[in-house]
Structures are given as structure tokens and as C-alpha cells.
Amino acid sequence: MTPETLFSLAGKTALVTGGATGIGYMAAHGLIGAGAHVMIASRKGEACTAAAGVLNGLGLPGRAEGFAGDVGTEAGVAGLAAEVTARTGKLHILMNNAGRSWGQPLGEFPHGAWDKVLSVNVSGLFHLTQALLPQLRAAACDDDPARVVNVGSVMGEVPMGDGAYSYAASKAAVHHITRILAKELCPDRITVNALAPGPFVSNMTAFATADPDRCDKVGQGVPLGRVGRPEDIAAAMQFLCGRGGAYLTGAILPLSGGINVMTGPSLFERALD
Fold first, then answer.
1. What is the tens place of the pLDDT at every residue in 2-54?
2. Which fold would CATH assign to domain 3-259?
3. Residue in 25, 165, 167, 247 annotated catalytic
4. Do 51 and 19 meet the contact criterion of CB atoms below 8 Å apart?
5. 167 is a catalytic site residue
6. Is the pTM of this model over 0.70?
7. Domain spans, the chain
């Protein structure tokens, strides 16, 4: 076995929602680098087309195409599923990355911030996966299952609100629905796993990561001493969607630099000084 056979995605077709920027773009880059044909969709179709153009200009073995798609409404999910179906009969990889956040202090957090966030992060993810099951089943086989990769968050694992209460709760729901679907879709030879990222530079975290000095300060709070890098996402996707992920389902990969295992101070340290 060689790296080319273990991580090659040649001949595979993928959909990455929210793939024009941030973690979705990093993932699309990794998939195309391994030879996949990647469809990039988000509410901003022009941004997806532009991102696909940039990726296609890198000389990578795969290719990209971008178009508009909104998972925030029932009609949007139906429209995106129809667009994907018109472009391919088989979908080897579905990455549910599209997401929304909302930050406001406790005591001021608005009621509407729950529906706006959960409609995309949870309901949209579930219903798009459900709508694309025929294409995923058509691509699946015993030796090489179809893959669903959901994007959760370390905030869905540990009690970190940081003013993003509906976001954190939505990501905990993503982790749980990942495990449920992993169990139910095994007979269809479809694996379902999730990424649980910590801080990465993206539009969603721009308030804290766009400035290099602030970004460094964020990294100092991560046990491994830095924020995530594009290759961390790209390599994880190549693993999950290549041979490494063929026998793995229901996993939540903690791409958080150790935040997922942070604990409080030693209970007995002071007493033993």
C-alpha cells in the first residue's frame, strides 16, 4: 500500500456545503488535492464560483465547480438536492459544513438566535443528508463506503458558551445526530463521522483571528499552542474519505489542539506544595 492508494480520491464526487470560505474551503482544497471532483455550494453562489476558479488554478489532480445552495430552509434544501442530482447520479462524499453562529451575552441573548442557528446547523444538515441518500447509496459498496462528514465543534463537547449559546448547543446536536446516523446507515455502507474543530481562521472567527496579534493570543489559549491550520482540515478529510475512513463510523474527531481534554487545576497541588 502506498500513500497514493491510501489517500487517493480519484474518481470520487463530493459536495461541500459552505465551501467557499473557512473550513469548507480548506476541506475542498484537501479533497481536490487527492483527486476528487468537488461541488462547492453556499448561499453566495458567486463566491462559490470564484473559489472553484481559484482551486482549479492550483494545478491539483481534482477539480471544483461552484454554485448557490441554501440549507437554511426546506425549499433551499430541496433545491440544493435537486441541483446535485442534476449534476451527478453518485455522491461519494457529503461534507455538511454550512453553519451559522450568533454571539451575545447571557441575559441579552435573543429568542430568534435559536431558530436562525439551528435551522442551518442541525435541521439543514439532517435534511440535506436525508435528501441525498439515494446518491450516497448509489456510490456505496462493501469495500469503499460512501462518506458523510459533519462539522461539529469543540464547543459541542465541552461547556464553553462564550456567548454563542445556540451555536454550542447546535454542535452538540450535530455530534449526536452523527452517531445516530452512523448506526442507522451502516447497512447502506455509508459512514458518518464528524469533525469537532477548535479555533481556525475563518469568517466566523474573524472577530478574534483576523488580526495576527489577536490570533496569536487565541493560539496561546490552546494546549498545543496554536490555532488550526488549513492542512489540519485537509489531511483529516483525506483520511476520513480515503482508505483510512473505510472502517470508521460514528467518530467525532477532536481537531481542537487539545481543548477537548482541558480540565481544571489539580485538586491536591496546593496542599502538596
1. 767 789 999 999 999 999 999 999 999 999 999 999 999 999 999 999 999 99
2. Rossmann fold (3.40.50)
3. 167
4. yes
5. yes
6. yes
7. 3-259
